[in-house]
Amino acid sequence: MSIEIRPFQPFDLPGMYRVCLRTGDSGGDATALYHDPDLLGHVFAGPYPAADPGLTFVAADAFGVLGYVVATADSAAYEKWREHHWYAPLRLRHPEAMADDPGDGSRDWQLVAQLHRKPLAEGDPLYESHPAHLHIDILPRGQGAGLGRRLMSALLEALRARGVRGLHLGVGGGNPGARAFYLALGFTEARRHDWGSVIVLDLRDGAARRSST
Fold first, then answer.
1. What are the CA-CA distances from residue 66 to residues 5, 19, 30, 77, 182 (Å)?
2. Cα–Cα distance for residue pair 50/41, rounded to 1 Å
3. Using one digit for the tens of pLDDT, what is the confidence trace for 145-160?
4. CA pair distance 13, 116, nearest whole angstrom
5. Binning pLDDT at 50, 70 and 90, where does residue 41 land?
6. What does DSSP assign to residue 118?
7. CA–CA gap between residue 71 and residue 133 (Å, rounded)
8. Are 40 and 16 in contact (CB under 8 A)?
9. Are 48 and 69 in contact (CB under 8 A)?
10. Cβ-Cβ contacts under 8 Å for 138 (sequence gap 6 or more)
11. What is the model's pLDDT at position 166?
């Protein structure tokens, strides 16, 4: 069965939300962890094609979307846009009172707390050298088929066409496979945290460019 990599279309959004949920537990299915099945998608998928058109790509087969990559070329501008145009209306649906842990093992409250967290007064210094960031998710049925590399190649080409200097993303410590994937593409570790690490890619580096093709 052929799998197509193509730019995002609005009708892809429900499929992307399903992929986001089914990979939302360090790559595993997070369906049982959220009362609101759309909440993960609202935070990690939906705002990107709205805020920065042209930097979302999907992998689709005859059964629909089975993977995607979303990104922004300018993280600082994206966070300002998200605060006013995306998070503000979401807070009406998910008030801060819902940010308390109900003690039932669900994780909605953690994302609600993120929605209500005040943005930093100053941007992250990393945004100067590596302003772009991304999220990528692929269902198990699409893994091992080279889709991650194909999605990344499409994104990196689009970022370089815009003249973006560099790219960063966070990788959780519970997902060593993802970390290995990015390191193989030429990413290097910039910071280490209790939850994992931040890795970066210099998009002007010819060696890194060759490794992504």
1. 10, 6, 16, 29, 20
2. 13
3. 899 999 999 999 999 9
4. 24
5. very high
6. P
7. 6
8. no
9. no
10. 19, 23, 59, 66, 67, 147, 148, 151
11. 97
Nearest Cα neighbor of 172 from 182, 162, 185 is 182
Give the integer Cα–Cα distance in Å for 76 and 56. 18
Beta bridge partners of 6: 58
Length of the chain: 213
Instruction: Name residue, tokens 């990107």.
Output: 48
Tokens of 135: 């999220």
> CB neighbours of 190 closer than 8 A, spacing ≥ 6?
126, 130, 168, 197, 198, 199, 200
Q: Are 109 and 99 in contact (CB under 8 A)?
A: yes
Rounded Cα gap, residues 156 and 167, in angstroms: 9
Are 123 and 139 in contact, with CB atoms under 8 Å apart?
Answer: no
pLDDT at 206: 53
Instruction: State the Cα angle at 145 between 168 and 175, rounded to 5°.
Output: 45
